[in-house]
Design goal:
This protein has about 425 residues and is α/β, with parallel strands linked by helices. The chain has 2 domains: about 150 residues, Lyase, Ornithine Decarboxylase, Chain A, domain 1 (Beta Barrel); about 250 residues, Alpha-Beta Barrel (TIM Barrel). The chain contains 11 helices and 21 strands.
Length: about 425
């Protein structure tokens, strides 16, 4: 097994109020993480809900300070747990400046949002490849609908003439956590999402044929982007703004530019938090002449940093010169790592500041070869029975849990307050 130097100094980027090391032990919301795991069993999610409120307020304040009319909406696909939604709903009354609306992308999410206290006017639907069965549910409620394909315009127009809608456009530009800013949503390569610039005139003609009123231009190009990707995001904003101007010239009373989601949080050493003030100024500078409301639909930015996932070390074994550490949790409870290939950080809860002395392969308990949490990862010496936390997992992971191998979903504990610690 290969030894490595202690590089914890570059790996504590995640430390913050609500998630910190005290006396060498990891704490979340002021509670001792290992004690939570021992009390509730593993795997276990633990949430510092106050972090969600802090992120929402930071975004709202940045947009307001930049002089922008704005709406902030949580991407429901990222986090739909009732305890989280109750907290988000409590951030502000419907229509208030503090309120956080919902971005949804399926009929089930429409119904879920309504069932958890959101008014239809606070919900924006953006989805692709929509069936007639989908429309049976979606159009039964006065949620705002963004249409992203010519086929959708025809379908909705036949069934709901006179409805106010948005057009989801594809500006052929992306912003991502990857260095190349390659986006699966919008890039030089064709994707399944959005109306392209050369299709805009046809799209508007279809809306006119069906008396649909286009009040929003929507685009989504982001994938966990941080401050260094803002120039790439700016290209997408410029192109979307051009399409907004073109839509107005074609007679569409566009009032809102929805810039989608994809705002990121630090996930690896060297990452720094997204400068939301700079992000908001970028929007204000580029949209100054358009007199629009800016809507934004973050998922990870609001919720990812709010949670950790804890598991027990059940195996420590050297195999052909490689240190393997096996956990009692697999990709069934946190498949964000395996679907999106995003990096994650792992911390030994009782020894969070321990030297990372060994290059380690961390694996799970799912009977599949790709149930691999990390490879060649600098990690402390550990013993079976210790508790390990995966950091910044509050977005997507719970929403995508499955029962593969009949392994159950992971339970969670939620804290709306932070216990004061010395």
């Amino acid at each position: 097994m290969a030894e490595t130097s202690d590089d914890r100094g570059s790996r504590d980027f995640w430390s913050r109020p609500g998630l910190a090391v005290r006396g060498g032990r990891l704490q979340i919301a002021g509670r001792d993480a290992e004690s939570l795991a021992r009390a509730h069993g593993t795997p276990l999610y633990a949430f510092d809900l106050e972090k969600i409120g802090e992120q929402a307020r930071a975004l709202q304040e940045a947009l307001a300070s930049a002089g922008l009319r704005h709406r902030v909406q949580l991407a429901l696909k990222a986090q739909r747990e009732p305890e989280v939604l109750a907290y988000v709903r409590g951030l502000g009354a419907p229509g208030s400046p503090e309120s956080v609306g919902l971005d949804v992308c399926s009929p089930g999410e429409v119904l879920h949002g309504l069932a958890h206290g959101w008014q239809a006017s606070e919900i924006s639907y953006t989805g692709t490849n929509v069936s007639e069965r989908d429309l049976d549910v979606i159009l039964a409620h006065p949620v705002h609908v963004n249409l992203d394909l010519l086929s959708q315009i025809r379908r909705v127009g036949r069934r709901a003439p006179g409805r106010r809608i948005g057009l989801r456009v594809n500006p052929r530009a992306g912003a991502a956590w990857r260095d190349d800013n390659e986006s699966l949503y919008s890039s030089d390569r064709p994707t399944k999402f959005g109306i392209y610039p050369e299709q805009l005139e046809e799209a508007v003609a279809l809306t006119r044929d069906h008396d649909l009123i286009v009040d929003t231009i929507h685009f989504h190009v982001g994938d966990g982007y941080l401050t260094d990707a803002l120039p790439a995001f700016g290209v997408a904003v410029d192109r979307a703004a051009e399409m907004l101007v073109a839509a107005r010239a074609l007679g569409c009373p566009v009032e809102t530019l929805d810039v989608g989601g994809g705002l990121g949080v630090p996930m690896a050493p060297g990452d720094t938090p997204l400068d939301v003030a700079a992000w908001a100024r970028l929007l204000a500078d580029r949209l100054a002449s358009l007199d629009v409301t800016v809507a934004v639909e973050p998922g990870d930015y609001l919720v990812k940093e709010a949670a950790i996932l804890m598991g027990e070390v059940v195996t420590v074994e050297d195999r052909m010169g490689t240190r393997f550490v096996g956990l009692d949790m697999g990709w069934n409870v946190m498949n964000d790592r395996f679907i999106y290939e995003a990096p994650f950080e792992y911390v030994v809860c009782a020894r969070a500041d321990a030297p990372r002395a060994v290059r380690t392969t961390i694996t799970g308990h799912i009977n599949e070869g790709d149930d691999l949490w990390a490879a060649d990862y600098p990690f402390p010496e550990v013993e079976e029975g210790e508790i390990v936390a995966c950091i910044n997992v509050g977005g997507y992971n719970q929403a995508m849990q499955m029962t593969h191998c009949l392994r159950p979903p992971a339970p969670a504990v939620y804290f709306e307050d932070r216990v004061a610690t010395p």
